[in-house]
Amino acid sequence: MPRKTVPSLKMAKGCVTIGGMQTGVAVLTGPNGWNSIGFADLQMFDPAAVVPAIMAPGDTVRFLPERIEL
Question: Which residues pair with 45 in a beta bridge?
Fold first, then answer.
């Protein structure tokens, strides 16, 4: 899925996004040029934690739907 031609200015924190061959989860609310395909309730980053990020580069992530909205 290609990146958006015009980015969203306020993509919500927790949005699961896809752009090209990559996917991500928005850590903060802000501008984003990727397409939103869902939402994650997990806190992905906590700067006060011993290990601040719950994922590292190269980790494999499997997304499972909680519900499907049409």
Answer: 53
Q: How far apart are CA 63 and CA 40, in angstroms?
A: 9
The DSSP code sequence of 9-44 is EEEPTTEEEEETTEEEE-SSSEEE-SEEEEE--S--
Rounded to two decimals, what is the model's pTM? 0.72
Domains of the chain by start residue, with CATH: 1-54 (2.40.100.10)
Maximum CA pair distance of the chain?
40
Count CA within 13 A, CB hemisphere, residue 30: 4
User: What 3-state class would DSSP assign to 65?
Assistant: coil
Structure tokens at 64: 């499972």
pLDDT tens digits for 30-54? 999 999 988 888 888 899 999 999 8
